[in-house]
Amino acid sequence: MKQRIITAIIAAALFIPFVIYGQYPFAILVYAMATVGLFEVLRMKGTSLFSVPGIITLILLFIILMPKEWSEQIQEITSYSNTEYVFICAILLLIYTVLVKNKFSFDDVGFLLASALYVGIGFHFFIATRDAGLRFVIYALVIVWTTDSGAYFIGRKLGKHKLWPEISPKKTIEGFVGGIVVAFISAMIFQFIAKLDISWITLMIVSVVASIFGQLGDLVESAIKRHYGVKDSGNILPGHGGILDRFDSLLFVLPLLYFLHFIG
User: Fold this and answer.
1) Contact yes or no for 247/37 (Cβ under 8 A)
2) Sequence-ordered alpha helix ranges (H) in the chain
3) Which site among 91, 103, 187, 264 is 20 to 30 Å from 163 CA-CA?
């Protein structure tokens, strides 16, 4: 616990100034975190980021991460859209299976494409959310952090019924519900302070759905780790694991806020 607290304080001290300032420094930080996240996913399967398919996937990740403003500027220069560049990367990965005589297979292509989308989409919306306003980033963090804390403490205190033991043995139904309740209350308090330009009923609904999706994001990463037989996605954050271990919930919550038109 002591190690977790120390790491959290140091990470927050480094991370928060970038979030507050936003703009290019924040976008560069997100690109760096996403790169580490992709490295963690690929390492689970034993695929090197510093290989031909790994580099192509990294380029694909960078394309997916690209803020709208950047992609529009590149399209003006090259006449190609992000979608077309994604298509090119997919074709190159498929061609590589032929060049190496299926030592790198169609299944491997699917894994790399899914990895780039899994990591890239969530972090892309991290940049987009910061561009929409600092309050939205704080709201998302409040939902994720209070859901996680509520699920952990209520689960430890009251948890008796396993939520999904095949995926995450320690999680309980009581903790799952407790996380939603704590996040809901925290979102209401946040609204009193920040006064987001949104109706209370919409905020209530979105907060509950976002809390559920955040926990699903956690379970998805747990499922990936269990499938590949690893405990943590990485060890870059002592006591916390890897980048994906810390941002797995946000990777689901941030896109959701856009799909629900809560942001944008």
Assistant:
1) yes
2) 2-21, 23-45, 52-65, 68-78, 82-99, 106-132, 134-158, 173-194, 200-228, 243-247, 250-259
3) 187
- Buried b / exposed e along 213-233 (16+ C-beta atoms within 10 A): bbbbbbbbbbebbeeeebeeb
What stretch of H or E contains 172?
strand 168-172
Contact 212, 29 (CB under 8 A): no
- pLDDT on residue 4: 63
Q: How far is CA 79 from CA 44, 85, 124, 248, 255, in A?
A: 37, 11, 22, 34, 27
Is the CB of residue 68 less than 8 Å from the CB of residue 99?
no
* DSSP type of residue 198: S
Residues with Cβ within 8 Å of residue 174, at least 6 apart in sequence: 154, 155, 158, 159, 160, 161
pLDDT along the chain (264 residues), means of 10: 66 82 92 96 94 97 94 90 94 97 96 97 96 94 95 90 88 95 97 92 96 96 93 73 91 95 84
CA angle, residues 181, 12, 210, in degrees to nearest 5: 30
Contact 233, 194 (CB under 8 A): no
Q: Which pLDDT belongs to residue 5? A: 67
Residues in the chain: 264
3-class DSSP state for residue 60?
helix
